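Notes, p. 3: input format for complexes.
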Amino acid sequence: MKPVKVGICGLGTVGGGTYNVLKRNAEEIARRAGRKIIVEEIGARHTNPDCDTKGIQLTDDVFAVAKNPEIDVVVELIGGYDVAKELVLTAIEHGKHVVTANKALIAVHGNEIFEAAQKKNVMVAFEASVAGGIPIIKAIREGLSANKINWLAGIINGTGNFIMTEMRDKGREFSDVLAEAQALGYAEADPTFDVEGIDAAHKLTILASIAFGIPLQFDKAFTEGISKITRDDVQYAEELGYRIKHLGVSRRTDKGVELRVHPTLIPESALIANVNGVMNAILVDGDAVGQTMYYGPGAGSEPTASAVVADIVDVVRTLTADRDNRVPHLAFQPSELSDMPILPMDQTETAYYLRMNAQEKPGVLAMITSILGGEGINIEAIIQKATSEDQVPVIILTQSVLEQKMNDAIAKIEALDEINGSVTRIRVENFGR
Ligand SMILES: NC(=O)c1ccc[n+]([C@@H]2O[C@H](COP(=O)([O-])OP(=O)(O)OC[C@H]3O[C@@H](n4cnc5c(N)ncnc54)[C@H](O)[C@@H]3O)[C@@H](O)[C@H]2O)c1
Ligand SMILES: N[C@@H](CCO)C(=O)O
Ligand code: NA
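Output follows (433 residues plus L-homoserine):
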């Protein structure tokens, strides 16, 4: 059979890894795909010192790649929204299949891109966009297609997990670890995407769509980052038997779908609480299978390339297959997507960790517990720290409650003269309890 010709756009961390893996494993990959896969052209502004591209056609115009009549599959690895979107739509318009690692693009413009792809009968594959090398899209979309999925939760940003692990285990400074994550090629071009949970929310949006059969709705995701977590919170959580992880959670409820990214206390005995460094993990709860967990490197050159190349192989395998019966982009047939709403954050339910500074006076604890009781919030545990100062940290673990009630309770606690400053709240998920 004729070789399949691929055009790679962007030759940075992921583009470079993709080129090298395709080259190094060419024989093995051809045995799997049923035909040879050749890199016909590379479109990139910069060359990559890790890649020997001798003999390959190079251009700095990625649109030339998207329009090159020789090319069957365009691999978008430039990142970002605008140029990437135009590039992908141009490739589709020219009848090319597309493989991308760009979660920002899929989460924000995916509905439009998939519609264009369906019209042109081409595939857009995006396994590398979520959790790097972990084949989580394939697992949910194909491996779990028998199930009604109840919820999923994951550590889906490698940079953030790397930062939190290094800070906790080695006491390193935030900025120092972030710089290392950038040097290792883990971080986004704008690392606030990693730290503030935007990147994780992009990925969660994609996972929720393929799990529940809903259109991509990134604008409705709730996002809270890791920059405000203090060493004290990490320590108090550990005293209570928990680890703090930056988690994306999406749960189907009677009222709608939860879509939220925030720091979360997880019981230290839970497997997912022990996922460290750049590793990612996603827990998926299906009605037939129960809970399954997927673990592996969430970022980095070749781990991500592993997913990009697997997508290229997938595309190649379907080139000769019936194009009306491909695996749908969002797992469900496009005409079968549901209009189940995304729940506003104040309508979600979780347990909470609260930390506040109370003045050292008799009766303050009673005031706090009475406010919580008044909102119908049950307390699981309280720690009051003795200090030499005239204010004491009070840490409270609550049972599960509607976020709206917790907002009201926190506002009332913060209004007390006996409480200094604001109340820190971290949500709690009791996996494995
Ligand atoms: N780095 C990771 O671990 C990782 C993992 C999963 C997904 N991703 C995603 O993969 C994509 C690429 O990330 P990366 O880490 O490889 O980025 P990178 O910055 O290392 O590489 C991007 C490359 O694209 C080139 N480029 C950008 N715009 C261009 C344009 N208009 N024309 C020509 N070249 C252009 C840049 O010169 C650069 O070499 C992003 O969407 C990112 O979110 C990255
Ligand atoms: N910046 C992302 C890359 C992988 O998507 C992360 O750290 O997880
Ligand atoms: Na993946």
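The chain has three domains: 4-133+302-336, 144-297, 350-428.
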